């Protein structure tokens, strides 16, 4: 098959591993920077161009779209979809998962466990908002934040009110969540492919830090999931419509709580912590879902 990988940096671990795994299984791979693409949108022959040249038809596309380029990246992915290229994750599912508030509302509708979350627009509503999430300590998150950036733990009610009012004064969109103290600064990343959780790791924050993101110095180790945690991860990914997802779960006294569903989960941490060849499993999933006999690409099959 001919596979396109949408990535801004071909040297990133996840991008290079996916390319390596696909080529090892006999596929042709092209890495495409979505911001260098431009599109011809028409009803007869939609196309994508890069530097004056039209891209060939691909059998499948693996989107590795960073949060900062979600709007343009998903527009390019939609163009691939219009051209008949099979996406690993569909553009609508990526857009859905990137909207933190919408994703939590969708998960809530499906009765999937979540930290109690509040959202408001007016400073006058802050006292009631804090009561909703159980008061302080609480976690305040920028809706546009990623990798732990824009996440604040307010340990007192006064601190929470000050931070929320400051964000509101800057016209920033935030949500406020209950603090799950019993998680102990740790969360679980469940890596979902299709209808299976193929790997899982526990991420532990540094001492004095509550954010367990590996980008912030957290450590990773292999972990055994409970049946309820496995089921929660699968239901969360399915609710977002994602074939491949990193579902982040907190262990609470009320059971597993979903923090976030990531549509472009990194491979480095999970592969090194578990020893599982996640990249190869992603390529195998593509092979099962895109049959060469149904390809429209000339010379393939």
TrEMBL record:
Cofactor binding comment, as recorded: Binds 2 magnesium or manganese ions per subunit.
This protein's UniProt keywords: ATP-binding, Ligase, Magnesium, Manganese, Metal-binding, Nucleotide-binding, Protein biosynthesis, Ribonucleoprotein, Ribosomal protein
Gene3D superfamilies listed in its UniProt record: 3.40.50.20, ATP-grasp fold, A domain, ATP-grasp fold, B domain
Occurrences of domain ATP-grasp (ranges): 104-287
Gene Ontology MF term list: ligase activity
Binding site for Mg(2+) 2: 260, 262
Known EC number: 6.3.2.-
Binding site for Mg(2+) 1: 248, 260
Top-level division of the source organism's lineage: Bacteria
Protein residues bound to Mn(2+) 1: 248, 260
Residues the entry annotates as binding Mn(2+) 2: 260, 262
Binding locations of ATP: 141, 178-179, 187, 211-213
Pfam families per record: RimK (PF08443), Rimk_N (PF18030)
Keyword Nucleotide-binding tagged: yes
Gene Ontology CC annotation, any one: ribosome
Cofactor(s) listed: Mn(2+); Mg(2+)
Family of this protein: Belongs to the RimK family.
UniProt protein name: Probable alpha-L-glutamate ligase
Organism: Shewanella metallivivens
């Amino acid at each position: 098959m001919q596979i396109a990988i949408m990535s801004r940096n071909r040297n990133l671990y996840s991008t290079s591993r996916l390319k390596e795994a696909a080529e090892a299984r006999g596929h042709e791979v092209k890495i495409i920077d979505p911001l260098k693409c431009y599109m011809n949108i028409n009803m007869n022959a939609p196309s994508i161009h890069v530097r004056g040249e039209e891209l060939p038809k691909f059998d499948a596309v693996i989107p590795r779209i960073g949060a900062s380029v979600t709007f343009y990246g998903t527009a390019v992915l939609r163009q691939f979809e219009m051209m008949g290229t099979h996406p690993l994750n569909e553009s609508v599912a990526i857009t859905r998962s990137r909207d933190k508030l919408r994703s939590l509302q969708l998960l809530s509708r499906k009765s999937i466990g979540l930290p109690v979350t509040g959202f408001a627009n007016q400073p006058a509503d802050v006292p009631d908002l804090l009561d909703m999430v159980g008061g302080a300590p609480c976690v305040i998150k920028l809706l546009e934040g990623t990798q732990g950036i824009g996440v604040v733990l307010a340990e007192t009610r006064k601190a929470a009110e000050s931070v929320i009012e400051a964000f509101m004064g800057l016209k920033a969109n935030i949500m406020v969540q209950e603090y799950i103290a019993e998680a102990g600064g740790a969360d679980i990343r469940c890596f979902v492919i299709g209808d299976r959780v193929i790997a899982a790791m526990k991420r532990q924050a540094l001492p004095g830090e509550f954010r367990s993101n590996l980008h912030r110095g957290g450590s990773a180790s292999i972990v055994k999931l409970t049946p309820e945690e496995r089921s929660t991860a699968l239901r969360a990914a399915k609710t977002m419509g994602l074939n491949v997802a990193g579902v982040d779960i907190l262990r609470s006294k009320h059971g597993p709580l979903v923090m976030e569903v990531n549509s472009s989960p990194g491979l480095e941490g999970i592969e090194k912590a578990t020893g599982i060849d996640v990249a190869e499993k992603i390529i195998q999933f593509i092979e099962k879902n895109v049959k060469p006999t149904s390809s429209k690409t000339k010379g393939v099959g």
